[in-house]
Amino acid sequence: MANPVTRPAANAPASSAEPPVELALLRADIDRIDAAMHELLMERGDIIDRLIAFKRTQGPGSAFRPAREAAMMRRLAERHRGILPLDTAESIWRVIIGTFTYVQAPYSVHADISGGDGPMRDSARFHFGFTVPYIAHTSAEDVIRAVAESSGDLGIFRPDGAAASGPWWAGLAGKDSPKIIARLPFIDRPYHPAATPVFVIAKPLTDGGSSEVRLVAATVERWREQAREAVGRLGGEVLGSAGVRDGLSVLISVPGTVTLETLDEALTAEHLGRIDLSEIGSHAEVFVLDKPGRGG
Ligand SMILES: O=C(O)C(=O)C[C@]1(C(=O)O)C=C[C@@H](O)C=C1
Fold this sequence. Notes:
There is one protein chain. By secondary structure, the chain is an alpha/beta fold. The chain folds into two domains: 37-211, no CATH class; 214-282, ACT domain (Alpha-Beta Plaits), CATH 3.30.70. 37% of the residues lie in helices and 21% in strands. The chain is built from seven helices and eleven strands. The chain has helices at residues 21-56, 66-79, 86-104, 117-128, 140-149, 225-233, 260-268; strands spanning 109-112, 134-137, 154-157, 179-184, 187-188, 198-202, 213-220, 237-244, 247-255, 275-283, 287-288. Strands 2-1-3-6-4 form a five-stranded mixed β-sheet, with helices on both faces. Helix 1 packs parallel to helix 3 and helix 3 packs across helix 4. The radius of gyration is 23 Å and the shape is elongated. The relative contact order is 0.13. Residues 51, 63-65, 68-69, 97, 100-101, 104 line the site of prephenic acid.
């Protein structure tokens, strides 16, 4: 528990060197709360210590559990009230959770900065804090390679990034290749302080992933605009496309309830020629708030 804080006597004389009694009382309350919050964070650390021992028995790899984090961030946004901006509450908890993930198993965040370093750095710092190393790369391919060669690192890139240089998502196909495991920010709203949408990749997770949204790389012989509408009828979206030697590679997101077979049937009905589908990851549905996080 927090150390008791000595309050000034209510009838203490006001001297010019000391703040007025009312102010001193309020500051004593702030000190009490700060000490209690610090104690609670250290207690959280003790619990993480026990969690490390438990999770070690579950196998190696990243300690990141995106489904759990998405649920925690949703609850935070729902219960938040008062004058502290939600932006601040969210960033504090992102740093707490990102750092406690790091404490469990150290990792670096590799970022594709081909679309600019600033937004990616903001995103990495907002979601994972300053303790976690940030490593910049000039292409999504380099990020995917760095994550594939690491033991438990994360990679981040923009969903709309650099399709002009080819289908970066092709590097995520294949059983053991890294997969998309999250889409950040978990909570979206107008004027989010780290608004740039990013996909997070990691080596395939054995547990703790969310499959609310499924991501698929589709290679087709030819593309027709009606196919985009067919994906839309399934509740999905075409996120990007790039030419490949034998046709076109298309990045598609569909609700997790839509299987690869259902998507295959819908695309086959659009006469796209040979179709090859490969699941390249999944993530939690973005939680959208319609109010800005700055309060006021
Ligand atoms: O719940 C877990 O599995 C944890 O590792 C704890 C924790 C957290 O700090 O709350 C940290 C990392 C995970 O991504 C999710 C949550």
